[in-house]
Design a protein that fits this description.
401 residues, binds adenosine-5'-diphosphate, alpha+beta, five-stranded mixed sheet, Heat Shock Protein 90, elongated, Helix Hairpins, single chain
Amino acid sequence: MIALAALLLSGALIAVSVSLVRERRARRELEAGHARELAAQRERREAELRSQAGRTVALFDRMVEGIIVLGPDGRIRLSNRAAAAFFGFKPPAEGQTVLEATRHHEVAALVGRLAREPDVLDHELRLDGLGGARFLQVNALALRSPEGANDGAILVFHDLTRLRQLEALRQEFVANVSHELRTPLSLIKSAAETLIDGGREDPAITVRFLEIIDKHANRLTHLIDDLLLLARIDSGRVELNLRPVELRTAAEDALDDAALIARARDVTLGNEVPAGLRAAADPERLRQVLANLIDNAIKYGRTGGVVTLRGRDAGGGMVEISVRDDGPGIPPDALSRVFERFYRVDKARSREQGGTGLGLAIVKNVVQAHGGDVRVESSAGRGAEFFLTLPASNGTKLTPV
Ligand code: ADP
């Protein structure tokens, strides 16, 4: 009886321990399953964060503004390509201080100010490098945790260089315009004063001074016309009446217009533009452009020299027309500047000829408005040749732009 009870008890015990083992195994499996699921979740989350961070970095790298994010320890957490390019550091700059990365004390001082101020806005920074001065606008912002503790800073750099260059150009332009206006005005004024002060009693003096007034009033009119035309081109207000223009005929017309002044200087004009070349151009504007170039070739060329117009198919849907003279030419250092507004190789000579210093700038702008371009070739003592390329016309009707 006792033996039976013992047997039953041990059977029950075995059953219980078997079920316990099973239960524990099941629990372990369940726990392992949970752990696997948790690990998979964590991996998914980390991958998500990694791709989010990757996207943020990619986004930062595509920004034109330079960005530097600092941690609470003052070391760089994140910086983008634009910032690296502005300061010439090699990314990644993570872990460096802002001074180590930018090597610019002014930037480090801005970060220092953030300990006392919440932000430093619109600070202008000048960087002097090999390619010339660069101007950056810096906005620096202190980051705070929800509890108000230091959580680093963010620095944003905008490149103002182009803006500053345009401002400098505008100031130079205004100064040039004022100067150009003042010179003929003061000559007109002193001629008028001479006449008022009694000069008019002598008929010869009266004629001479009235001629001075007339000459400089014409110069002023010319200057104002050129300025207004440039302003209209700049603001895109010049309407081009595009037509197929036969270049040999256009050259002939422009040469006819210049015949008188050419004769006065004993200059021979030649038209070597082959027949049949057609440009898509505004005939009036093209005539003006050619007149400017022929006028220059006569003015700055040789007395008794030769001015020749040539043309060719330039390929790629473009045609070319050029104006060549056999005068003293343009010095190499001036070649790249002659198309600038008010640039003259010889100021006195240009003024003496009634030049405004705007002729070639107008030529360039008008030709570019047609979708073409200009260039000049010259070697000292061997004359100059100005080339215009214009879109070719296949002779069909063109839409004005
Ligand atoms: P400007 O009113 O002074 O003639 P342009 O813009 O037409 O102004 O020309 C700018 C300068 O380029 C001139 O002052 C002159 O010094 C130089 N230049 C232009 N054409 C020639 C040329 N064919 N030969 C030599 N120099 C030239």
